[in-house]
Amino acid sequence: MAVVSSMAAIASGGINFGTYGASKGALFHYISSLRQEYKKDKKNITVSLACPYAINTGMFHGFKMVI
Predict the structure, then answer these.
(1) For every one of its 67 residues, what pLDDT tens digit does the chain have, with 9 covering 90 and above?
(2) Which residues in 37-52 are b (16+ Cβ under 10 Å) and which e?
(3) What's the pTM?
């Protein structure tokens, strides 16, 4: 299983990114928990989570991440 989240899941986002960061953070923690549950239940399922940085789209115009 492969899931794409965002660096906003694990770092403080910029101004007006609270909702976006919260949704990506929820996904990040859900997938982290799912990974642990699969391991505990000895299920042979690999879970990969990608968290790319801001990409060059209109959504990120003027975005500056605060770390």
Answers:
(1) 888 887 777 776 667 778 888 888 899 899 999 999 999 999 999 888 888 876 667 766 676 666 5
(2) eeeeeeeeeebebebe
(3) 0.67
